[in-house]
Amino acid sequence: MKALKSTSLLAAALALAVSAQAENITVKGSDTLVVLAQKWAEAYMGKHADTKIQVTGGGSGTGFAALQNKTTDLANASRKIKPAEITTCIKAFGKRPTEYKVCLDGLSVFVSADNAVKELTVAQIADIFNGKTKNWKEVGGADAPITVYSRENSSGTYEFFKENVLQGKDFASSAQTMPGTAAVLQAVAKDKNGIGYGGAAYGAGAKHLAVKKDDASPAIEPTEDNVIKGLYPIWRYLYVYVNPALDKGEVAKYLTWIRSDEGQKIVKDVGYFPLPKNLRE
Amino acid sequence: MTNVPHNAKRTVGWMGIHRGHKARPVEWLAEKFIYLISLTAILMVFLIFVFVAREAMPLVMGKMNSAAARPVIAAKEMDKLKPDELRDYLGLTAKEFQQLDKEALTALMEVREEEAKEAPKDKDATVNTTEWKYLLGAHHWSDSRPEDRYVWQPIGRIHKYNLWPLIIGSLKTTIVALLFSVPLALAAAIYVSQLSSPSLKEWLKPAIELLSGVPSVVLGFFGLIVMATFLQGTFGYQSRLNAFVAGIALGLAVIPVVFSIAEDALTSVPRSYTQAALALGASKWQAAWQIVLPAAAPGVFAAVVLGFGRAIGETMVVLMASGNASIMSLSLFDSTRSITATIAAELAEAVFGGHHYRMLFLIGAMLFIVTFLTNLAGDLIMHRLKGRLEGRAK
């Protein structure tokens, strides 16, 4: 009898536990966003004890694949979804995924602290990364060959830079590819003829160049103010994608919270820039 | 004791069960279990190959189209199409087509339209870059520099998949690794097996083989941080990470493989060879160099072949220390991108089932075939050598 009682108690406790942790949100995708997503999840779970949020990285493409297979609720992405990925999503659940812009990221161009060059135009940057400009003296520096550091082509940053700065042209084939922004920065810091690019939040050890939109416009530093106001020319959105069928209840609440003032405050701590007010809805 | 039956040793079974050979149930089970495991291993290798080949197959058969700009039909014209035409246009299988409702099909049509709107207008945008002539032949692409005719740039407006930069990259690091490691490993093997005193051998052999226990990511890290700086300081070339640095770091991973097999081959040459040579007045060195080494030549060759297989299949060291730039250049001091590092770096972001994904599986399959054949050749040569030496020794 006693045993029966304790078993039923146990069963009741189990049932309670199951119902208590009813809301589980999984988030997967971009490595660029993984730290921010984890901070968001921690802060949100601190306030909503009954919601569990699991965040994993793996890359934007991995996130989209998981979205198609319905193994994740939210897919983080540092680039826009591609037509081929929308197509597979439609095949999998009949609708195109909903896109949410979640924050801004400014991209800096770094050179070594010893480099005399302080500012470049977007066109000059494109020529350097494209391999047309090969020597620093062509852009006002010392007479030395330029070593170009780039990211792996799996990186969203790589694609963004290629599409928006190089206007779709190829990177110079001699560009060395580094596994992360920190690695690019480290290489540039060690190489006095090096040049690289990456998130504006990084930066110790190398010099951020001021960038001119064209010859006539002023050189702009990649500071928070300049990025949010849209003055600095190289910036992008970061995204979260969701299957519209799942965009309700706790998931929808979480997405709204991310884009609220509270969520956007965390963005700054991680080194990205908050969305302008008009985009927060 | 004279009355003991002729099969006496069999009857003393496990735990004293006197029922002969088969009365050892645990041993019998263990034997079958191990047999099963070995079968599973073979099956796994086979299944892995089937999987890799299946993923790459559509590309080999020429069924993928990577053209950036494809012909497009406006979404509102959808009703004018016959179901079959529509299915064909959207590239759906019959089953997929049945499951999708009207709304989903319209969405698919719209995606195609958007894709076409954003597609580049270059003259190469309509080219299917996964055709073999673009994979292996030179082509001047409208969006890359005129001097680059062999280009691996899978991401961008036009997906360029020329294989030569990767093949040459892999071969460059492998050759440097072999040039560096084979002489060292062979010298060590000859010394350890022929010249050293037995007590020294007991120390040397495990010490060298311990090198194979160093995780390759640690070797890569060592190459990236320590060796790259040291070698650049010594030789003064421009790019810090290049085929040379990666090759030397890779060589450290290859040394124990070559050493261990070459040493086995040299040791398996019967002592009587050396003894005969010494008796005829040869020095120890002459006996080792002129008698034992030629006798073990096939085994030494097999060691080199297996070392090649290890070097070309190694990923982590190359990924970290080679600079990963897909340059078409024969210079050892340029950065380089190997097949293995390319797969490791790009697969995570490739669109699942897309042409980039399949292309990575294709180069993976190529690599698999190359390493499989070299390992097979190495094993066969070793086997023949053993047979030959044992046959003669009798």
Keywords:
heterodimer, A: about 280 residues, alpha/beta, D-Maltodextrin-Binding Protein, domain 2, 2 domains, 9-stranded mixed β-sheet, two-stranded parallel sheet, 10 helices, 11 strands, B: about 400 residues, mainly alpha, MetI-like fold, 3 domains, 2 strands, elongated
What's the topology here?
The complex is a heterodimer of chains A (281) and B (394).
Chain A: H1 2-20, E1 23-29, H2 34-47, E2 51-58, H3 60-68, E3 74-77, H4 83-93, E4 98-112, E5 119-121, H5 122-130, E6 147-151, H6 156-164, E7 176-178, H7 181-190, E8 194-199, E9 206-208, E10 210-212, H8 224-228, E11 235-242, H9 249-258, H10 261-270
Parallel strand pairs in A: 1-2, 1-3, 5-10, 6-7, 6-8
Antiparallel strand pairs in A: 3-11, 4-8, 4-9, 4-11
Chain B: H1 8-11, H2 25-60, H3 83-90, H4 94-99, H5 102-118, H6 132-136, E1 152-153, E2 160-161, H7 164-195, H8 198-210, H9 216-235, H10 243-267, H11 271-279, H12 284-295, H13 297-313, H14 316-321, H15 339-346, H16 355-393
Antiparallel strand pairs in B: 1-2
Helix pairs in contact in B: 2-16, 7-10, 7-13, 8-10, 9-10, 10-13, 11-12, 13-16, 15-16
